[in-house]
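Hello K.,

You asked for the raw outputs rather than the summary table, so here they are, unedited. I folded two proteins back to back in the same session to keep the settings identical. This is the first:
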Amino acid sequence: MGVTDPAGPVMDRDEVDRALARLGAEHEAIETSLLALQDHAGRRLLEGAELTGTTRERWTTAEASISLLWAYFDAYSDALRGAREIRARRRWSSREDLVELTELLRGESVTVAGSATATANAPTLLSAAGRLSERFSLAALVDRMNELYAASLDMVVTADAVWSALPARIDLLAAELQRTRKLAHSVGVRPGEHPAGDDLERITRILTRLREDVVSDPLNFWVPAQGSSAPGGGRPDTTVYDREARALEDVRREIDAVLTVRQDAEARLIKLRDVLSRADRTLAEARTARGEVLAKIAATEVPVVSGPPTALQEQLATAAEYRRQAQWHRLSPLLESLEQKADDELLRARESLTAVTAPLAVRAELRGRLDAYKAKVARHGLAEDPFLIERYDAARRMLWSAPCDLRVAEQAVLRYQRAAAEALGAPRVPQQGGPEDRRGEQV
């Protein structure tokens, strides 16, 4: 919409003609804008909707503003038509005509009948509420129409933007929600029985309420653009929609996990049985080894080996029952827990076997060290040395007797090492660690 020039002295004929041309162009632009607003899809939706909240309040104001716009436009049209008639009286307007035209075109020559109801609902006209009529210059009238038009158009465009964006997206998400509910039901994910089922119910309630609120109060879901004065500047507020869309995606992933369980449950159960069986065999081996250690090794603390946990076997039996009954939503978390516990149990069994057989490993290391030095002595032609033979036999009797005192046996092996080192002319064997030959090589 345009803006007319401010008032001035008496206009000449050229100024009048230019003003009439400008006013005619403004009249055409204003009429085009008003007709576009009248035909706007958002306005028609607002007229037929059951509105609430902020939208209802603003639409009441906008309706009054639109009614006033047409009243102002009619008054503007009448004033323009009157000015054209005066100008058309004579080809060369008289002084009296020019004075009259100047007053009409620049003065407060337009009278608009007031409407108490309309002006009370239009915020820009509160000061005029209750008046029987108002007087305007054409320029002031255009300014007033521009103001009312901008406010009305902003309200209509904003509501239409929200209605164009959110309900359709909510409907698509609701359709996806229904598909997810059917899939969840097929694998036993139901409200009250699985958290994902409860989440689906909650999302359904929120989406239903959200759609109702968006349809009845679209302006409550609009975020204005900062610093923008253009009608409809901003974007729809999708915070609630986005949050529920993410929640539905989480539920879909949970159901996908349950579907995966349905597909590979048997293989996972077989693997679980195998892991627990290996853990049981390892524990049995550890118990057997503990008996051997107690019989063959003296003065050694041997840890007690616990039996297999019956709780895991009971949970494994429960998991198998869930599979037979197709209770996939219950089987899924149980399998994940059992797999972790089974791996932990196998690791515990292996650690127990390692701890129990540690004394046997020490004895084997001492036996290997003793035989290694005997071989080294033989390579240097000292195999028949009586002193070395005596030390070797003493250490061997201790290591190959049962029960074996590892501390005493280790001292015997160290004595043989030192004797062999002295016989070979090597540096003295230290109290701890293996022997070294003259080249510093570890045996």
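The second followed immediately with the same parameters:
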Amino acid sequence: MFQILCSELQCTKTIAKNEVITNDTYSSRTANNFHNYFFSFNMERINNQFCIQNIPVTSLVEKYGAPIYVYDTDKISKQYKRLKQAFSGIDIQINYACKALNNISILNYFLQLQSGLDTVSIQEVELGLKVGFAPEKIIYTPNCVSYEELQQAIKLGVHINIDNLATLERFGHDYGSSVPVCIRINPHILAGGNSKISVGHIDSKFGISYYQLPHIERIVKAYGIHVNGLHMHTGSDILDIDVFLQGAEILFDTAKKFPNLDYVDFGSGFKVPYKPDDIETDIELLGEKMSKRFKEFCTEYGKNLTMMFEPGKFLVSEAGYFLAKVNVIKQTTSTVFAGLDTGLNHLIRPMFYDSYHTIFNVSKPEGLSRIYTVVGYICETDTFGWNRKIVELSEGDIVCFKNAGAYCMSMASNYNSRLLPAEVMIKDGVDHLIRKRETLDSVLANQILV
């Protein structure tokens, strides 16, 4: 069993101390991937204003109000093409994990990029179909759903991915070889930047243990099931590419038991930078090593297969910005708080995952910095960042959160009866409203007074 846990905190600490990294995964090539943090987010300074695709950020707040989510399609496109180009000489299919950010305009943009779609619910399947994705470009990878939901997905014609022995047996009884199926394997690899997003370990609810492979084989043989794909996903925020290589070997060994595969899905979990001098998964090195090994395996297998990945955060995290207004500056005996017109109802990741989001003052690109603890307006602790050095804030200033593209708006709620913010997508230098700001009437639409 492989036991690997990459801590974002530990990785950042290592770099901060200038320690030598001895693991050969982190070559000098990885060091060269450290880049200017602001540049990596496609935000520029033009005429002393922060801009996205030449549009002043503050003008978006003036036009659409605050708080607001803004998405830069240039960054999405760059990440998508970077991933595609990293894997050469093989048939690779990228399926965007739409749980990260599921606005239909974002899905439509991925459709234009010729991406596939990774879905985890029947509603995400239906969203993808409504946007225009062909069923064969959608993979449905649920867990703990009802059998009736699985049947709905089968009727819609998408790729089915099963991670439960009991479900696999019932599926075989009802469909036999008439519907091809992918099987999700739990490789027993503990990987990810946080225990809540490590999903491939022995105690995880996800996947069928590779120790249960003989049981899978018995079910497949008994019902004549057509297994056309194998899948794994170990976690999110994975830095060490050896995690993917170790997981790949498990899938390759498993694949030898199934002679009619069309694809192998390696999940995702690529780490992106969150702060200055942060480090990220070396996609180029991963692509080089994985492509070489995958070609070798296809030769061993006797058939050229499709390699699949299902990135979400890697594609949209750095493309997203969350803009909020400073309501109050509150000084206590020990802390200076910057209180915003938003809270964990709009951006829960810092409280839920202890995640770090860079926060800066877009109203004042330059000036004296002070130390603030940035908090929200929710009636419980909702701290976005402790003791952050930010250019001096005043009431009415606009602050920006980076890495707001993934698992931010998609996890937002109406807690405290607060309304959901608007969303704006910037494409080809033009800003587009892609979700209207919520109103109380829309919140009450499905409630019934008795």
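The longest strand covers residues 320-331.

Happy to rerun anything if the numbers look odd on your end.

Regards,
P.
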